[in-house]
User: Fold these one by one.
Assistant:
Number 1:
Amino acid sequence: MSTIQYYIHFLKNAFNFTGRASIEQFFSVIVANFAANLFLTVFAFLLRITGTNLEFIFKIFQIPLFIFWIYSLIAFLTLCIRRLHDSGKLFIWILVPFINIYLLLQKGDDEKNKYGEVPV
């Protein structure tokens, strides 16, 4: 799958806490979110330094962007939970600082586990 396909899958499964997520999907979502945020930040910076009157665009879209940000945050939490499931760990590990990062970056199980089939 491509990064865009992984990101679309990520958004479609925002409230799906079951199943597994591959490390490729996890990193693809991180890269896509970073690229989108970088683009919006640079765009906003350019608008501000050029003094254009296009700042009203951000004012119009503040509420939808905030809603999308909240949606993305929930989707990322569910992705992290599915990522933990890929290595056979319980969702509760997401609450343990630093260990959760190690577990999220760990290679997943090569075979079916209690959370489902090997993710594609």
Number 2:
Amino acid sequence: MSAGDVLLFSRKITPAAFKADPFGTVMCALIHLTTRSRYNHAALDIGDGLMVEATSKGVAVNPIRSSDEITRVRGDGKRVTCVAFTPPCANAYEGNDLEEVLAWGAGRVGNRYGYVTAFFCGLRNLFPGWSVVQDRAFICSQLVAEATERAGHDYGKGSEKVSPGDLAEHFGVPRR
């Protein structure tokens, strides 16, 4: 595990998952459906077993959880996929890129979640031109996209339109 890795989460949609967390399971299913991707969440590994992520509670630093399947991709654009932490991925950022990415991501802690942005991100497959940017509010994939843009990654669209599946494709990992 390396600081700077992009973490892509793929939560299984099962009756047991629904019983344990109905709202979260429905939201994951909607993300899978509207973004046409197996990934429903994205975060940035900031080292020491911690990640910065945007959740319904806002942007926060949390321990990296292993209950979902996690795909790790390197921040340098080279294709490296690690599932469930095995094997560890080595980062290959250049110069101060890693420090800038981590500082920018951690600097967003305390910002609110972008519910409106999430809604329009889901609708973009139906209405490609629609988007809304909320000031100082983030969805998970937008947070990761904006952080990694500091290392020169270009997603070809506004970060508010980037989904976890788009991050996967950008780093050479199949979306499904």
Number 3:
Amino acid sequence: DASRYRRGETEAPLPWSALKAAVESGEFYVLDLPEKQKVAVPKSAFGAGEGQRFRLLAATSGVPIH
């Protein structure tokens, strides 16, 4: 299964295996990707309950959230 990554007009699948880790702050999840790339995802982009689902999917996929 994959998440979707969008930058401007470009959208692509982002497989869970590409995520190395994530950091959760008050307003964002910062995702660590290959080649030292980082993506900040605002928590406001998640609908009701989707943040909890994201954390569960990350945990079951072996992606640590700090």
Number 4:
Amino acid sequence: MDRLLSVKELARKGGATPRAVRIYMDLGLLKPMKSGRICCFRETAIERLAAIHRAKRLGFSLGEIKSRLNRPRISTLKKIIRRVEAVKRDADFELAQLRRQLADSKELNP
């Protein structure tokens, strides 16, 4: 059975702050189980928190992330795929440029 995590535990295990977890809860990105005022999460919430962080690193807004995580339509998924592919192309190009620059620097400064 899943061990339940508090907001602080989820934040620590997921590499976030408790404040960020609460913001994600308020926006509906993370859905805790509640007992009165106490919120707790299943361990699977760590994976969801990681998905939120990945999407943020890719430049998606929290609203876009919510659309992606909460049963998106096919058209939304296709749009997200195109955007991630564009980010990947840009990242690949930038990596190639940086590697070329590093190689040039090594030749000039052995």
